[in-house]
User: Fold these one by one.
Assistant:
Number 1:
Amino acid sequence: MRQAVPVTQLRPGPHDVSRILGDLTASSGTDREFLAHAELHLPRLHELFVRLYGERSDGLERLASLVDLAHRSWAERPADLRALDRARDGEPDWFESESMLGGVCYVDRFAGGLSGIRDQIPYFRELGLTYLHLMPLFESPEGNSDGGYAVSSYRRVNPALGTMEELAALAADLRRAGISLVVDFIFNHTSNEHEWAQKAVAGEPGYEDFYLIFPDREMPDAYEQTTREIFPDDHSGSFVQLDDGRWIWATFYHFQWDLNYANPAVFEAMAGEMLFLANQGVEILRMDAVAFIWKRLGTTCESLPEAHLLLQAFNAVLRMAAPGLLFKSEAIVHPDEVVSYISPDECQISYNPLQMALTWEALATRDGRLLQQALERRHALPEGTAWVNYVRSHDDIGWTFADEDAAELGIDGYPHRRFLNDFYVGRADGTFARGVPFQENPRTGDARVTGTTASLAGIEAGDAGGEDRVILAHALALSTGGIPLLYLGDEVAQLNDYGYRDRPDEAGDSRWVHRPFRPVQGYADRMDAGTPAGRIFARLTRLIDVRRATPEFAGNELIAFDAHHDSVVGFLRPGAAGSSVLVLANVGDHAVHIAPLTLSGLVPDAVDLVEGVKVSLRPGRTLPAHGVAWLRVALR
Ligand code: GLC
């Protein structure tokens, strides 16, 4: 449990902790439960504020008004959500259970609107979802809005999808069905149409410093010495020019303007939006683009120490006013940086981009060693946190493995990434993949890959191993530990949608190739074993059912298992009752035989969980090409 920091360690000041807590205690209007939360978390928030804003004259004043904001938000928190907060407090590891299963979809593309999503609840239950991420659904600019990642208002739903009242009602319906609603918290930037952005450009008092605006190129040029280009197809560098000639920071699209978190007023304003969403019944906030939220000249402006302090400060605010919520980190960066965001006090859950990318890497190379090495040394997480394991997302695949890890296996990172890009965009000889390049940067040679799971794995190309690869990739995401997350449509083998090329708002962004509309035929075919949709659905739902019935799959503990074949990824998932599940996955194109000696540390009588039969390990175990086994075993 978190310890309250003794107030005596903190710097005294006009708004120090003891004073704020004293005022809260003395006031008859203070909610006692809020006071208890504040006693626990305010000292931490205060310390973070001192570190972030201690130099500024208004920093601590802002803290007092932030606590007031949190108090008001708690007062408005609906009773059912307060009950949820208490339930989560009583079962803090709820999200580490073997029954957790996530799904993600676009509201419009999958179901037309929020009411259509509600109509899908029976299907979500059939699938076993306990977590539903609805892609950005807020008001955003007409036309290209980066798929809604350019937010114009955090309090209004895009009218084409529904209303905020409908979203709150949907959250409650989902909760009753055992499904937690997840939405994006896009807090690094807003759209250029957001009220704050308009006011900042107009120089309205109080808003001038909400964004990073410079009169000429001097500072932008200085920053761009060390920053990375994220969407070079849209604009070079990290800045775009305003109509009046000034320059504004825009890491992503030119209409997504980065907020200036060095200004505590920005923190407070965003905390207000966060608490508003929490009170609508959102249970998990996907913290978008966390690496970019703090800038400092002479650095990459990614994953700076202050980015962590900011997230921890948001977390402390949440613990006071909506304690049941979780933060999910979206950091698609070097694996050392990815884990740096994960802790009970920062982001409790995180995408696992390394496992995702290395699953595809292993399928392309037919060599499981990089993935095996990552599971061995980069899978462990602090207690009270979990990975979100996915096969693909709405974004591109970037090859974010560590060059130093690859070098240990004799792999040179740069040409290897080039090979993987060529392979997955169908440029390499003998490739089974039908992906599309994304943001190819001729200057740096950098590129990423897009495509649906079925198209990348070989189903679109008619490759004989395509279906097995789809199952293998999902079997890993379902078994390594954490919350498995399905991109809805992948469970019925949905293929790429090349129609985006004819839609002007999408044509310039190849990620739309893998964000297709609901595959009506695929869902109609899902019980028909004569179709790829039916076969994938049957095999995947079998894995999902088995996972849910396998307590060893809870939590994150994983022990690497050396199967003595480069193409085989192996690991044990130990359970509480002395048994373990041995997972073996063969990424190669040929069957392999795991020798009896390799399995001799295990009691020979095992259970093949997927087949539901007893097996003997005495003769060893043969894995077919692209085959996976989940075996319940006991160690000798
Ligand atoms: C995240 C989103 C991506 C978006 C970017 C900018 O990386 O996943 O889709 O383009 O943030 O908001």
Note: The two ends are 36 Å apart (CA to CA).
Number 2:
Amino acid sequence: MDNRRIGLFDSGLGGLTVMKELMRLLPSESIVYFGDTGRIPYGSKSVDTILKYTKSDIRFLQDFDLKMMVAACGTASSTALPLLKGQYDVPLLGVIEPAAKAAAGVTKNGCVGVIGTAGTIASGAYKRLLAGINPDIQTVDVACPLFVHLVENGFAEKNVAKEVAEEYLEPIKKAGADTLILGCTHYPLLRKVITEVLGDKVTLINPGVYVAEEIKARLTEADQLAEVPYDEQYSFYVSDDPAGFVRLGSVFLERPISGLAKQVDIEQFTE
Ligand code: DGL
């Protein structure tokens, strides 16, 4: 047993979709979440900036006694993590590998769609990994930057989201992908609209589900699962006013988080 915490970070509140899956699969773990709400979005930033922000997020989390760190952000995972391999004592996981493995295992026709932020798609991380797992897989990837704004502004299930999805998903539909990786934290909230556009025969891969499984497997293997009492389990830190995070975060997490979020000056942790 190991009751130390798991540290999760994201560019904002989107990583709560990953945290939700982790809480569902491992309800006795203690989790500290950092959302860089003051510097979101990461998805449209340069590699250097994403790397700098990711390093500071990790530096902040290192102040806690952690047994594992997770980049719950598609952009940080795809862009910064490959450059940070082996630099930390605490194991550091991202969302890309578990999702790519899942998609490669699910596809029947060998055509996998990937959607994510501009940064995630430009990194080519999914394409590389999928080709490494199975060179016969054809990957069709599309950056969908408007999706984040639609979700954060409450339009996830409105007609405008469907219209935007029809435009973005056209190349994936045309290629006949039978599997689609939702490669950005916000996209699981667009599941309904995406299924309306692509049809229900396309399997949607939510990376949060698979990273949670990977965490469980690793902790089980290392005999590091926790037994933490319910009311001591979760804490949240953000780099901007917690009010917005608490309001929208409860929608992402599907449970109230009021009173649990604190503000941190992330610049203090930035090189
Ligand atoms: N969390 C980011 C991701 O999953 C989306 C928001 C952003 O661009 O920072 O890539």
Note: The two ends are 35 Å apart (CA to CA).
